[in-house]
Amino acid sequence: MKDWIFPTCAFLVFAYGMFFLNLYIYRYTNSDTNIFSEPTQVIQYDDIGNFLKEISESFK
């Protein structure tokens, strides 16, 4: 009779963990937050020189 107690408890702990893992993944995939948000400002560069100038000024 003891042979079924440990496997049953282990399965219940596993099933409990899988349920909450699936619930977390479901909530995460259906949330309104995105990992990559859209840029708030779009900058148009006329040529590569202006682009490099902006980058060098941002490091100062």
Report what the structure shows:
- With 60 residues, the chain is mainly α.
- The protein contains two helices and no strands.
Mean pLDDT: 81
Helix percent reads 55-70%
* Structure class: mainly alpha
Amount of beta strand:
under 5%
Instruction: Sketch the major β-sheet.
Output: none
Low-confidence stretches: none
Using DSSP, what is the number of strands? 0
Q: What's the SSE pattern?
A: HH
Shape: rod-shaped
Amino-to-carboxy terminus distance: 74 Å
Helical stretch count? Answer: 2
What would you report as the Rg, rounded to the nearest angstrom?
Answer: 26 Å
Structural topology:
Elements: H1 5-29, H2 48-58
Quick summary of this structure?
The chain is mainly α and 60 residues long. It has helices spanning 5-29, 48-58. The termini are far apart.
Describe the structure using short key phrases.
60 residues; mainly alpha; 2 helices; rod-shaped
